[in-house]
Amino acid sequence: MNINLSLYGWNETMFQQKQLSQFNELPHGRVAVTHKTCYEVIAENGLFQCELTGNILYGKSTEEYPCTGDWVIYQPMNENQGIIVEILPRAKTLYRRRTGKPSEKQAIAVHVDKAFIVQSLDDNFNVRRIERFIIQIMEEKIEPVLVLTKADLGFNKDLIANSLKHLSDKMPVIITSIYSPETINILHRYIRYGETIVLTGSSGVGKSSLINALCNKEVLDTSPVSDSTGKGKHTSTRREMVLIDNSGVLIDTPGVREFGITANHIETISSALDIADLEKFCRFRDCTHTNEPGCAVIKAVEEGTLGKRCYDSYLKLRKEAWHFSTSEYEKRKRDKSFSQMVKVVNRFNKNR
Questions:
Q1: How many CB atoms lie within 10 A of CB 157?
Q2: What is the mean pLDDT of residues 286-309?
């Protein structure tokens, strides 16, 4: 079997990075699926089931373990098994805050060119959730595309457009239905050869069905709408890579109830929520936009040019980002102190 890895995004930049590795003579591949203890790696010679070398397993934190989309170097063990010995440098990684752990983040997909933020035009539609996704995506310089699904169910077009007016200039907004091939064809225009697109959104919005429609075949399992709730059932349980014939790569992700941001730059939040242009006119350069005199942001809210809900969302997300950054800093400081203590103990034992 000979697989063309350029379809999966392998390029000259990745090749140059591999040449810097001490393992550059070993084969490379891309992580297509992550399991608890092993990884499915697509390589030129086929699909390999790989485990981690001890140096990675015990020498790295869990957030540094391979993730769907990572390019890795592996040592083949037999016809379809191997051991991952190195992870090539990451770029454009979509993270979210790990649930229940305010100072830790979780990689969702790596080497991502575009992110399809999938929202359905039913009770699942949530502007505040879209804001969270777009902030995290913009933080990593990933190109966002908002994909609204289930248009066949009917929706209030003016209401949706009005709720998205502060976001629609940040990304294309594509209204789709898997029963309308012309809407899927429009979405195809945003997928280029060799690109990687991650689909993210809450459970039941139709990500798996959308991927099947884009591939024009059943590549992922889907579930019917629940009779009791009228909502889609959760189907995807893992992050999985799918190749569109002669096009790009799609990464399906499990639906999330909560998407905690890990943005370190408040400017990203300001820019995403249309605050950045306003705060230039604040009287004070360090204005917090809460109670200062001469605050252009508060004035815009009072005059109705900036929505109150958008402003409240900005304050909430800014606080959340600050809390994550502070918690992460304290965690790094503790880890550094612990590492230094271990070095001292090892040095002491060596000199005894």
A1: 11
A2: 94
Q: At what angle do helices 127-139 and 308-351 cross, to 10 degrees?
A: 40
Give me the phi and psi of 167, to 5 degrees please: -115, -20
213 and 143 in a single domain? The answer is: yes
Q: Report the alpha-carbon distance of residue 219 to residue 225 in Å, rounded.
A: 19
Structure token pair of residue 338: 């612990």
End of a domain among 87, 108, 124?
A: 87
CB atoms within 10 A of CB 47: 15
Termini Cα distance of the chain: 56
In this structure, are residues 199 and 251 in contact, taking their beta carbons and an 8 Å threshold?
A: yes
Kindly report, residue by residue over 110-151, the tens digit of the pLDDT. 999 999 999 999 988 999 999 999 999 998 999 999 999 999
pLDDT tens sequence across 224-236: 554 444 444 445 4
In the chain the beta strands, taken as DSSP E runs, fall at 28-34, 39-43, 46-52, 71-76, 81-87, 94-97, 105-109, 114-120, 143-149, 173-175, 196-200, 240-243, 249-252
Across residues 175-200, what is the average pLDDT? 95
- Measure Cα distances from 32 to 29, 66, 72, 295 in Å: 9, 10, 11, 49
Q: Which domain holds residue 73?
A: 5-87
Q: What pLDDT score does 100 carry?
A: 62
- 203 and 60 belong to one structural domain: no
Tokens of 295: 């605050």
Q: Is residue 260 assigned to a domain?
A: no
Q: Are residues 274 and 221 in the same domain?
A: no
Q: In sequence order, which residues have a C-beta less than 8 Å from that of residue 253 and are 6 or more positions away?
A: 108, 109, 198, 199, 200, 207, 236, 239
Domain C-terminal end among 228, 252, 276: 252
Residues 164, 242 within the same domain? yes
